[in-house]
Amino acid sequence: MEILVPLFRWLLLAAVSAWVGGSIAISYIVAPTASQFLGAQGVGRFMGVIFRKFSLVIYLSSAVIGPAVALEGYYATTGNRQVFLSKAVLLLLMVLAGIYLDKGLSPEIVRLREQIQQAQDSQQEQQLRHRFDYLIKLAGRVFSLSMALGLLVLLVIAFTSHV
Length: 163
What we know:
This protein has 4 helices and no strands. It is mainly α. The chain has one domain (2-160). Helix 2 packs antiparallel against helix 3.
């Protein structure tokens, strides 16, 4: 079974790289380009679709990260325990941030968008829009946090891998 450790390390690296690379592409290529060509309403809907599709990357990466970390933890030597634990905590936080974004914030944002469209008066619409704007900013921060945690994991892997 120990022979599988390098394979799982490679899978872990690939999963985190896909997550971080996708996050960077969305943040610095897709979102700015979409905002240039679509109005505020259009870019919100478009990014909602992008995030729903990117959630597949999040869940596939999480499915790889879990077993890879468990296997690495099982075979980690005493000297590597601190590195393993720091990597495991960073990965756990990254995965939790991704799940919170997909299962907690995204459905609430979609629900609020629909409520804003159906609002009967301007005061109700303004209250809903205030909450909506807050959740959009929070989602951006959680997304950035997830990306930053992934970058930290990649740095830990880079600095602790044996060449």
